[in-house]
Amino acid sequence: MSLGASGSALGHLLVGHGRPPDAEVGYSAWYHRAMDDAEGRALARSEPGLAFIAAAVALAVAMGVGRFVYTPLLVVMLKEGSLSRAFAGVLAAANLAGYLLGALMAMHSLASRHRTTLVRVGSVVVVVMTAMMALPSSVWLPARFITGVASGLVFVLTVSLVLDLAARVQSKYGIATAFSGVGIGIAAAGVLALPFQSLGGARAAWLGLAGISAIALSATLAFLPPSCSGSQRTNDKQQTSDGPLFGWLALLYGVEGAAYIIPATFLVAMVAETAAIARLGAIMWILVGLVAAPSTLWWNAASKRWGNSAALVVACTVQIASMLAPFVLPGGPGALALAVGLGGTFIGIASLAMALARSLRPKKATAAIGLLTALYGVGQIAGPLVATRVVLDTGSYRFALFIAAIALALATAPFAAIVARSPER
After folding, report:
1. Collapsed DSSP state (helix, strand, coil) of residue 134
2. Taking each helix axis from N to C terminus, what angle separates 332-360 and 365-394, rounded to the nearest 10 degrees?
3. Within the chain, how many helices (H) and strands (E) appear?
4. In a designed cystine with 365, which of 173, 358, 370, 388 is the match (CB 3.0 to 4.6 A)?
5. pTM of the model
6. Distance, CA of 148 to CA of 153 (rounded, Å)
7. With bands split at pLDDT 50, 70 and 90, how would you rate the model's confidence at 46?
8. Which pLDDT tens digit goes with each residue over 208-244?
């Protein structure tokens, strides 16, 4: 479209909203209302399916690569001798601290107004920082921290965009499609890392995954949903008052961050404790991603049937049971149950919690999502610290896993009690 045609179209749009008021405040309100309508029409002309797929790719890169690929590559780096166990913990903590900061940054009103742009920028930053992990170890600490910041920012803002788009177009599977990107990213990164590391070790794996991520993003980032300023609207089924439920949701989600991260961080090491299945650690991690990818579909169906809050209680209960499975089923069956249970629930819990937060606080959805993600981030930092202390005292990861299960059960119980007394949400 030519510049003149663009100006003419814009002029027609603005004229359609009447003559602008003289007062500065009135002019601002009039202008933003006109722009919101323009963005809404642009969204209507776009293909929502492509937007959900683009969001899935962004989450696959930000979480599957930026956040979680460190889990399988950590073992490789330790074997190569390029990383000590002490520094491995420091790098993990730096990434989690960055993730927390990114989630807090996403809560700012400026970030909310420029969500699509920031998701694109953050995704590129994840790719660049991933490639930097192939450089000497002196850059690893800032690289993992910055990756964490970008991952947290991309996650919160992408989820906010997806929830808004799903509400606008009344999509049944859009949220599930987008969240499946996390599981696909975990599984794909775990599988794709294997040939790269066989060719050139961990450094080749970091570079290879960065290159593949760049290709995937270049094909999809243009299709992300627009950052419509008036997007946080409600439908008839959404809640307008949260009562005490949001507080208990925040507590539950923060504890979930501390609980799930223990097996998510130490699953490979837990498997290695049992000699008969020690070589299956990487396979178990890939299995987590393979189960996680479609899990959003059945939790989406559960939310339609029971409501977000009831489905969230069920998901947490299943995760608790999977954490206790190794105590009942020793060896391979217990590890398999843990991997399947973790992969089958942790993304579902995230998607259900985010959807519930948006329905409870529709006018401040991005801030609500950011708050939950920040609490989740605090839990992700606290969980490994507690687990490490327990492992040092007991010599095994089993008791740390038991503590995680009990903590999640204690947080789920009061939330479930309120849900049982409240109307379906």
Report:
1. coil
2. 150
3. 15, 0
4. 358
5. 0.78
6. 9
7. low
8. 999 999 999 999 999 998 876 544 444 334 444 556 8
**What is the b/e burial string over 272-294, where b = at least 16 CB atoms within 10 angstroms of the residue's CB?**
beeeebeebbbebbbbbbbbbbe
d(CA 154, CA 160): 10
| 129-133, long-range: CB < 8 A, 24+ apart | 129/66, 130/65, 130/66, 130/69, 130/206, 130/209, 130/210, 130/213, 131/206, 131/207, 131/210, 131/211, 133/202, 133/203, 133/206
Q: Length of the chain in residues, anyone?
A: 425
Give the pLDDT band (50/70/90) at residue 423: low
Residue 319: closest CA among 297, 289, 339: 339
Per-position DSSP letters for 266-279, written without gaps between them: HHHHHHHTSGGGGG
| Mean per-residue pLDDT of the chain | 83
pLDDT, average across residues 320-330 = 92
* CB-CB neighbours of 215 under 10 Å: 10
Percent of the chain whose pLDDT exceeds 90: 42
Angle at 188 between CA 268 and CA 316, to 5 degrees: 60
Buried b (16+ CB within 10 A) or exposed e, 49-81: eebbbbbbbbbbbbbbbbbbbbbbbbbbbbeee
Q: How far apart are CA 24 and CA 35, in angstroms?
A: 16
CA distance 377 to 102: 10
Q: Does residue 413 carry a pLDDT above 90?
A: yes
b/e per residue 26-44 (b: at least 16 CB within 10 A): eeeebeeebbeebbbeebe
Q: What is the rounded CA–CA span in Å between residue 189 and residue 169?
A: 31
In angstroms, the CA 84 to CA 90 distance is 10
CA atoms within 13 A on the CB side of 251: 14
Give CA 362 to chain center in angstroms.
20
What is the pLDDT confidence band of residue 6, given thresholds at 50, 70 and 90? very low
CA-to-CA dists, residue 122 to 90, 148, 152, 365, 376, angstroms: 23, 10, 9, 20, 19
Amino acid at 303: S
